[in-house]
Specification:
Keywords: Membrane, Transmembrane, Transmembrane helix. The protein is mainly α. Helices cover 71% and strands 0% of the residues. It has one domain (5-56).
């Protein structure tokens, strides 16, 4: 059970890091700053990051 919790925490941190990185790179602008409600680059960036995490740590 504790491995599931650790995996969830790492996933949350990874998603946060991807959001910050894409924001700094200019690939994602939050909705409150005038960006769109739905961001395909952010969706695929998070999807790729979580996919790679699940390949490394199933």
């Amino acid at each position: 059970m504790h491995f599931d919790l650790a995996h969830a925490l790492i996933s949350g941190v990874l998603i946060f890091v991807v959001m910050i990185g894409m924001n700094k790179a200019g690939l994602y602008i939050p909705h409150k700053d005038g960006g769109p409600r739905w961001s395909w680059p952010l969706f695929f960036g998070i999807g790729a990051a979580v996919f790679i995490l699940n390949l490394v740590w199933p």
